[in-house]
Specification:
The chain is an alpha/beta fold. The protein contains 4 helices and 8 strands. Strands 5-4-3-2-1-6-7-8 form an 8-stranded parallel sheet, with helices on both faces. The longest helix is centred in the C-terminal third of the chain and has 13 residues.
Length: 192
């Protein structure tokens, strides 16, 4: 199972050429076909259905929004969080498409590969392939603080300790300490 984030490290990777079941986030459907599309932002859900993304993929979103799109073929509710916590980042509404996509991958497969989960920007600006396009931040917007993503995806790695996670990244990328688990390995993006 390949889970695809929209970090700029995946520029130039032909996702369609990778023979695996795929979970993608938000606007990935504009460029590639995925089997499962995770959209937690209501604008992205609307765009995905208006553009027919559900013709090729099951579209996962928050329960209250899924109910508003139930007339559409392929709508699914995001999986429930596999834990409870009292901090803000433990609340389902604080989870973004990337962490939910990793959670879905862990629920669907024993072996989960991650691509495009850069976390940090190489500049002060947002790191996203789709920045500056419809329903995305402007190209010059300040980079997003990745602490929530790191924590939430780390929870998936911790809870699904019998799953194998491989993160494909550039040689200069550093694994967050919260992700340093026996079931998590890093490989170079060229090996995908």
């Amino acid at each position: 199972m390949l889970v695809i984030g929209n970090g700029e490290s995946r520029v130039g990777i032909d996702i369609d050429a990778i023979d695996d079941l795929k979970i993608g986030c938000n606007a990935i459907y504009r460029d590639f076909k995925v089997d499962h599309l995770v959209c937690v932002d209501r604008r992205m859900v609307t765009e995905a259905f208006e553009q027919g993304a559900n013709e090729h993929a099951l579209v996962y979103t928050r329960e209250d929004w899924a109910n508003k799109y139930k007339e559409h073929k392929g709508i699914r509710t995001l999986p429930l969080l596999p834990y409870t916590g009292s901090d803000r980042w433990d609340k389902p509404f604080q989870w973004g498409s990337g962490p939910y996509a990793v959670l879905l991958g862990a629920k669907l497969s024993q072996d989960v590969s991650l691509l495009g989960f850069d976390l940090h920007s190489n500049t002060n600006n947002v790191n996203n392939i789709y920045k500056g396009t419809l329903n995305y931040d402007a190209k010059d917007k300040r980079a997003v603080d990745p602490r929530y993503w790191i924590y939430q995806i780390g929870k998936v790695f911790e809870i699904y300790r019998k799953r194998n996670f491989t993160i494909y990244q550039t040689d200069t990328w550093t694994l967050p300490s919260a992700w340093n688990k026996p079931n998590v390995m890093v490989d170079t993006i060229s090996n995908i």
